[in-house]
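Lab notebook, bench 4. The sequencing result for the construct came back, and we need a structural model before the next group meeting so we can plan mutations. Quick request posted to the team channel:

Model the 3D structure of this chain.
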Amino acid sequence: MRTRADTGAPLPALATAATAPVVLVSGLVTAGVRAARETGAVLSAIQSLPDLVRALDRLAPAADALAQLAEARSTLDELAAQVRHLPETLEQLRMLHEQVVAVACDLRALEPEIQGLAETTAALDESIRVLAGALGPLQGTTERVGRLVDRLPERRRRP
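Done. Here's the predicted structure in token form:
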């Protein structure tokens, strides 16, 4: 076997040297086919640019809304966290409703008694007015009798 004097590597065979241009041309053809495919993809991407521009134009008005939505993110997160407590709150509201209905039924049962109490209160109010009318003149008389009793001689001797 023949070797190169400077590296000690074997010399290429004559057939290998003859096929090298074919391998080179084959590689170039493969690269050309790949480049053509890639060029087609690039052209397709370029052709879709107007569609992308129109889509961006339609999204532009929503940019403010998207910014507001991003600012509201923490509020939305808090709401999502509070939703977990919603079933408990609904149960408490249901129980409160039942209690309110029970109290309303009790009040309805007490209504005749309350009506009677209102009538009795009105009668007592009238009686108080009559007594006040009768006691008014007696108060003046009582004061005069009291002064008269204080003047009696026997009254002064008692300590």
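The chain has a mean pLDDT of 80.
Will bring this to the meeting.
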